[in-house]
């Protein structure tokens, strides 16, 4: 079963180079994607490494590293993450409420009694904290998929992806992906757009977050130690089901 998505993500430093690359790829589609991140007014979820978002008003998603959440005093790199997704509007079936409440219990959030998004927000004092609005153009070649994101107020980013199975040689795939983009002017991004946003618009809050850019670990959290984070990848589930996602580092 192909349930491992191997991905590299970069900030684009030379757009002309990227456009030349994309000319040689097969265009798939272009779409707008809007993510609304929920948090308290003080960013309490962000500070704990909990990411709750609404994607395109169609999905409610939770992302967190359980080990990092349970050990807040231990410094962690953003290498591993569990992800849970629920279609919106929330299903009226009791198992939808039960599944969300299991996550709430783990994250010490207040549980809901009905499949109602507003109840979840109100009980946990959550507001629409960040809006990540992007236009994504997707491409592919014979092996990999590429996503070119133009993110409003943040800039342009590119991702290269491969959907693999446990039987595939992941290390070989990762090396091939690095080689594909090795001649381009790019900056590796090992966090999500959430951190990218706060780093640009509220640096003080950004520094209180659970995860930082690699160069900021060196400057602000040197006790985290040196890590050779080249990229990250995760296991992805399918629509409507609970699924676990695992971010891992890649060594040279």
UniProtKB/TrEMBL annotation:
It comes from the Bacteria. Residues 3-199 form the CYTH domain. InterPro entries: Adenylyl_cyclase_CyaB, CYTH-like_dom_sf, CYTH_domain. Keywords: Coiled coil. Residues 160-187 form a coiled coil. PANTHER family: CYTH DOMAIN-CONTAINING PROTEIN, SI:CH211-156B7.4. This is CYTH domain-containing protein.
